[in-house]
Amino acid sequence: MFTNFAETQHWIEHIKRFGSKLDLHRISTVLDRLGHPERSYPTTHVAGTNGKGSTASYIKNILEESGYLVGLYTSPYIVKFNERIAINDEYISDSDMIQYANQIKPLWDSFNDAGETITFFEVITIICFLYFRDKHVDFAVIEVGLGGTLDATNVIVPEVSVITNISFDHMNVLGNTLESIASNKLGIVKDGVPLVTSVEQEELMPLFEQTIKEHHTTMTKIDCDKVSNKNVSEQTSFTYEGTHYTLGLPGFHQIKNAVLAIEAIKALCNRKGFEIATTQIQRGLAKTRWPGRMEIFNHNIILDGAHNIGGVLALKEAITKMYPNKKIKCLVSIMHDKEHAKIIDVLDSFCSELYFTQFDYERRANADDLFNESHHQNKKIYLDYKPMFQELTQLKEDEILLITGSLYFISDVRKLLVK
Q1: Which of 255, 287, 319 is the last residue of a domain?
Q2: Whether the Cβ atoms of residue 59 and residue 46 lie closer than 8 Å to each other
């Protein structure tokens, strides 16, 4: 029996990340024994390479502004372990985490004794489903952890499926082509459940259309031509179908995520037979904040967890538009299993100075390797960034400090900025 949160978190975080078989058998069996808590409330399922968390948070906040009790399941965490599971604006409590871990542990032991492991992500997903059921949420927004088809969240049958975009990431699991990655993410599409997407690649549309046909459902593809008056600064704004919206999250990519959320809400309303006012959508979008995603401190320090080529290209577009006359100093650390050479090529192209570093995390790349992959004329290396961090943040009027490369890295750095 777990008696405190520290030992509960330690147990969960030291469970294997992948099971002996990559399938949904284990989690399906456990949920069956628990009475299928995931079927107790309507859900929206959000997949995609980038923008999942922001889009899910927009949807959740629009529903919350409309008076509903809304569960939100996301990963990974930036500030606190509990933030993966939240209802409205409150994370699951330590005591609730302990309670659900104790409820699941005997089932976990029985699988373990039989030579199978209920994985780390499966355990957290099960806790999420139980918590949302017991708290009687009106809706839940569920973010896919990895891919789609065999992700632990793919046991739900949602009211709406959402796919943000398709880019290269996790190729060791999802495959080395956009088609294989898209096919995996399309695994969340269910029979008769509408799909809403902002995927742009025309070459992928036959695959999307084939999937829709097989599942006897419909697809809404957002039309960026309907967006006008785009203004990207610390507060982003745009007009969509004649209505003006303001976002708390900066970046051109956030306009696309917000429009996707608007269309997902429309699909949900059509499916469930209720209405949400335009003003509620506006308030929901405006109130959305997302730690570590173009998060700005003191107007000159930016944290962004871009960790794949799609994410870093969106970051470049946002930074160069928002700070056209600024000198961009970049502190960066990247995971060794990411396409770090390609990410560094992009950072080389728009940053004025690059500072390569590393931190205490088993998957991180060595700072030396990242440094050697860069062709920048003005680059330095800090094996430990913390002693130099105070100096890096002493910025001149024309300087911006960008901290990026990994959500895990910016989570580590963020502790120095938020006391």
Answers
A1: 287
A2: yes
pLDDT class of 24 with cuts at 50, 70, 90 = very high
Give just the sign of the alpha carbon dihedral 238, 244, 247, 253.
negative
In this structure, of 167-181, 199-213, 320-334, the range with the lowest mean pLDDT score is 167-181
Strand order in the sheet with 295-297: 295-297, 301-303, 399-404, 327-332, 353-357, 379-382
The answer to whether residues 351 and 402 touch, using CB atoms and an 8 Å cutoff, is yes
Indicate which CATH number applies to the domain containing 327.
Answer: 3.90.190.20
Number of domains making up the chain? 2
245-271: pLDDT as tens digits: 999 999 999 999 999 999 999 999 999
| Residue 41 pLDDT class (50, 70, 90 cuts) | very high
Q: Which domain holds residue 142?
A: 5-287
* Closest to 266 (Cα-Cα) out of 249, 243, 289, 247: 243
Q: What is the strand order of the sheet 85-87 is part of? A: 90-91, 85-87, 70-73, 139-143, 43-47, 160-163, 195-197, 219-221
User: Apex CA 403: angle with CA 398 and CA 405, to 5°?
Assistant: 140
Whether 283 and 299 share a structural domain: no
User: pTM to 2 decimals?
Assistant: 0.93
Task: Tell me the β-bridge partners of 139.
Answer: 70
Domain boundary among 226, 259, 287: 287
pLDDT of residue 369: 95
DSSP type of residue 27: H
Q: Are residues 346 and 282 in the same domain?
A: no
Whether 350 and 402 map to the same domain: the answer is: yes
Tokens for 384? 């430990």
- 264 with 335, same domain: the answer is no
Q: What confidence score (pLDDT) does residue 170 get?
A: 60
pLDDT at residue 25 is higher than 60: yes
Structure letter (DSSP) for residue 214: H
Q: Which pLDDT does position 171 carry in this prediction?
A: 56
The answer on 261 and 152 residing in a single domain is yes
Whole-number Å distance between alpha carbons of 249 and 280: 17
CA separation for the pair 312, 253 (Å, rounded): 11
What tokens appear for 105 in the block?
A: 């542990």
- Indicate if the alpha-carbon torsion angle 103, 82, 181, 14 is positive or negative: negative
In the numeric block, which tokens belong to residue 390? 């105070």
